[in-house]
Amino acid sequence: MSSLVIYSNYARLKISDTNDILNVGLFLTTDKTLFIHDLDENKTILSHKNINGLSTVSKTVTAIENTDFILVAGMNGSLIISKLVKSSSISNYDLMVLKEIKIHKSLITAMKYLKIDDNSGYLCSIGWDTFVNVHKILIDDNGEISIKAFNGYKLMTNATSIETIYHDSLPVILVGRIESSLLSVLYINDAEDDVNSNVFEICKISLNDSEFSTHAFHPMSIANLVSSNLITIGTNHIPYMRLITVHLPSMGEILGKLKEKGTTEIVFNEEINDYKSVLLKIGSEIELKQSFTATIPIFRDSIISNLNSMAPQDKYSSALIFSRSDLDSRKGLWIIGDDGIIRGYDLSTGKTVIELKTDEGRIKSAFIGCNKYSKELIVSCGAMSKQIKIWV
């Protein structure tokens, strides 16, 4: 790469015109270019400049799994929805820009797509406006895309990290923010009408062993461990990132605490798991912003382990951790270090089991993906060398 890669991501695309399946890397560079690289054939299939406009740098990118829709967010708070199409040239592709929508007032720092089914999902995003926003994406039978905006949730400080999961079969967002060692758990309240569709906080999980301190550190990266209710957080500790693994309380436990706090007076039947109806009622009444007086429960006994990753970092670092691919039977994490080393970490032993040496400097971006042989791929983008390296 001639320019620095500022963000990268993995996507599995299905081209609607040809039904081709592509495992690709999506790369955004400082010269406002989106590169799409075929990980199976190891070749770049698209280079598109200024997708967010001549004056706007693109900050983050994702794709809707098993479709040809690519979503690019800019530093101006706008989301570009585009489609990868086969070009007239047999071996190349073009990018068709479909629409642009404003999803944040300012810079979008990260976004995640949580799939509902093959034709719909939730685009969850965080930005410098301190909001956690959700937009429901719907794809009709003709391949046309539409968007439903939910009422967002305002945090007390800027978010640092975001992850989306299904917890007890319900859509949940995990958010870390600066100046707080509390991990916020938010619920995506998908009501039938637009007015009551929103996202709101249902509990916090303490990452700090000290009950009376919440500002010693904050989360920088979140990884959902495969097939479990365990979440691992990479922190901003100096000089080495720490890995804190916590257990998510069940929805029954969370709603029980909300009732104790007086947030809801609704009686729910845990045996039939009627959580959604209770949460729908809470969502119609709760204030959609954090405050010191909010009656949101804090779970303080959820820490499973607190380990030293031995991955060096400083106050300017952006901690990156990734869970192993669910195609791989081994459980663990990939940790991206500022020393140019990617560490394979076994959480059960607290030890590094493999080191992949990339650059003698900081790794700006990385992702975990797979190829057509279902082999796990690790891709890193160097900050100094501007090189992209791929491990299989």
TrEMBL record:
Q: State the source organism's domain of life.
A: Eukaryota
Protein name, please? Unnamed protein product
Originating species: Candida boidinii
